[in-house]
Amino acid sequence: MELKNIKGVGLQLEKKLNSLSIYTVEDLLENYPYRYNFINIISIKEAENLDKSTVKATVIDNCKVQYIKRNFNRLNFKAISDNTILNVTIFNRAFLKPHLTVGKEIVLIGKYNKLKNTFVASDIKFDICNHQIEPIYHLVEGLTNKNIIKIMNEALNYDEYYEYIPNIYKEKYHFISKKEALYLIHKPNKIEDIKTSTIRLKYEELFNFMFKINYLKKINNKVKGIARNLNHDTILNFTNELPFTLTKDQLTALEQIYKDMTNINRMNRLVLGDVGSGKTIVATYAIYLNYLSNYQSALMAPTEILAEQHYKNLKELLGKFKINVALLTGNMKKREKNDILLSLKNGEIDLLIGTHSLISNDVIFNKLGLVITDEQHRFGVEQRNLLSNKGINPDVLYLSATPIPRTYALTIYGDLDLSIIKTKPKGRMEIITKVKKENEIKDVLYKMLEELKLGHQIYVVSPLIETNGEQDLKSVFDLEEKLNLAFNKKIPISVLHGKLKSDEKDKIMNDFKKGDIKILISTTVIEVGIDVPNSTMIVVYNAERFGLATLHQLRGRVGRNDVQSYCFLITNKEVERLKVLEESNDGFYISEKDFQMRGQGDLFGVKQSGVMSFKIANLKDDYQILLQAKEDSLQYIEKEMYKDNEYYSNLIDEISFIN
Ligand code: ADP
Ligand code: MG
Questions:
Q1: Which of 150, 324, 349, 390 has the most CB atoms less than 10 A away?
Q2: What is the DSSP letter of 434?
Q3: CA 371: distance to chain centroid?
Q4: Mean pLDDT confidence for 231-251
Q5: Is the model's pLDDT at 594 over the cut of 80?
Q6: Structural domain tally of the chain?
Q7: Is 94 among the domain residues?
């Protein structure tokens, strides 16, 4: 059901909700509180000697406002609580006067003085008289917690939700109904309510997730792929052409890919490796094998910048093997694009590189045998659908720099085979990382100057394009101004951000690669994959705004050659977790720490993925529930119990259809 059907939701409010990814009533109901305020209501007698207490009361006379001076006023009224008449005072709340009508039931929070019969309130609440636990929701500007509580109350009247837990498990664990769970999580009366509803909703989410993973695994094991008839010497032939020696883990990955691609089962492999661990070359071997067996490959990158970088590098490398590489981008001229599409259809192109537009309908391959996705968690269901229309079960290889602990990886990527690359290429130095306050910026500028004098280049990152008036934050343009001032406009500086047109972005990126731009100020668009080995320093402003995994990714933009690189994290807040980055350059260690400190951290918060972002479950804290859900969903599949369940049988049809 649409949001606007809810009483009290107008166009404005709907937009605000949309910006929280809430589009339907079901979305709204699944927008769970992220914490609660516990309001302990006591009787006025118990409040006698306390500095702060919360009591219920009823207004018994009209309230008066005194304006003491500009920006300072006092509101007085009488209220009764447990037969005790109170003279209530609250400061600077003149605006509450119209709400404090005689007979109104309220909750007073503040200090009670029995001798004087006064209650000096710090806050007055109206809407929670029967709810001593106040849910707290994520908000956006212009949307208050009160707004959400109000419309949530309305939404709870509709039966707009789905029961995803099959009956047999609902009975097995004595779970409450979905309706009850939704009610209790949004309007709990006691702590117990939060617990019972939370655990049920977590199990539901994880069961649904593990069902999909387990089912995918089951059918993937059966899907026949291409059994290529290729010699094991291909590994040596390939590595002999490389300007460097592969690491042990890279070689293992090559062996695994060789097995996958010469085997009749379809390859469905995830290469997990820290930034800079050299995943691209592993994927390149797969492209080489695919070419040798006369199939075409597709390589998809998350951004055009990255696609172009891959194109430049791979064209050179694969040229040695006579592999014909082409690039398809959004800003190409129509004729150019048509030419490429034509030669793709004819089979003249062996490898096509681009963004996700490669799986759009007008891109037709002659004989697609391999699809590689770089730096993307995985395809959504719809994307897989489009893909399998393009070739006969192409082999699939995912590359991801999300260094997640192995046990978790095995579960949540349970349907994929894993190649983990831990060893770093030889000769790489640790990136020296320092957390700095803004008033220490001189040290940073000095270091920047030193690096510039050595002919090196620098990234400067800010979380924002505009500051929205938030004082403590620096936008990319603020930084441009600051740095131009600091370096007397003698250093070529450019600003890159997501709102630029793609040809503008390309120009800036290319100028930076060529070294014409010395300092690149940017938002996190540079986060993924960019490889400019001459950059040796990265400065991140408002570092507290980023998760450890993102910062680690950003830092991975430097340290890409054999000279010393530096990373400065600028923050004015005391942020303990940033110290982890000073301590370590190991993505797997950092992600462990992130897990320990923040649950799943921001590893799965990656918005673009969608598949991995849970609404209520948390991989680390709820790992036991995850394991239970894994076991149950496996049993549910093996015993074909889903046949009686409309939702899961539909889901299976959908998954089977696209595979
Ligand atoms: P990522 O895993 O972050 O995608 P890349 O594949 O971009 O990393 O590799 C980073 C850089 O390291 C590239 O310039 C690549 O050519 C280089 N590289 C990859 N493997 C090795 C190796 N075994 N020895 C030396 N350099 C390597
Ligand atoms: Mg990469």
A1: 349
A2: E
A3: 24
A4: 96
A5: no
A6: 2
A7: yes
User: Which residue among 129, 160, 191 closes a domain?
Assistant: 160
| Strand positions, DSSP E, 137-283 | 268-273
**CATH number assigned to the domain comprising residue 100:** 2.40.50.140
Nearest ligand to the CA atom of 422 = 1
Of 160, 187, 212, which residue is a domain's last?
A: 160
pLDDT in tens, 622-643: 889 999 999 999 999 999 999 9
How far apart are the C-alpha atoms of 142 and 18, rounded to whole Å?
13
Strand pairing report for 72-81 and 53-59: antiparallel
Q: Which ligand sits closest to the CA of 276?
A: 1
Q: Find out whether the beta carbon of 420 lies less than 6 Å from any atom of ligand 1.
A: no
DSSP 47: T
- Helix, strand or coil, per DSSP, at residue 10: coil
Ligand 1, atom nearest to 277 Cα: 2
Domain of 103, in residue numbers: 3-160
- 140 exposed, middle or buried (CB, 10 Å; 0-12, 13-18, 19+)? exposed
With CA atoms as reference, report the closest residue to 39 among 129, 148, 145, 111: 129
The closest residue, in CA terms, to atom 4 on ligand 1 is 279
Angle between helices 623-638 and 191-222 (to 10 degrees): 50
Q: CB within 8 A of 514, min separation 6: which ones?
A: none
What is the per-residue DSSP string for 344-357?
HHHT--SEEEESGG
Q: Give the residue, by CA position, lying nearest to ligand 1 atom 5.
A: 278
CATH number at residue 455: 3.40.50.300
Non-local (6+) Cβ contacts of 612 within 8 A are 377, 378, 412, 604, 606
Which ligand has the nearest atom to the CA of 316?
1
pTM for the whole thing? Answer: 0.72
- pLDDT, tens digit (0-9, with 9 covering 90-100), for 323-333: 999 999 887 89
Cα(323) to ligand 1 centroid in Å equals 20
- Strands 519-522 and 535-540, by their bridges, are unpaired
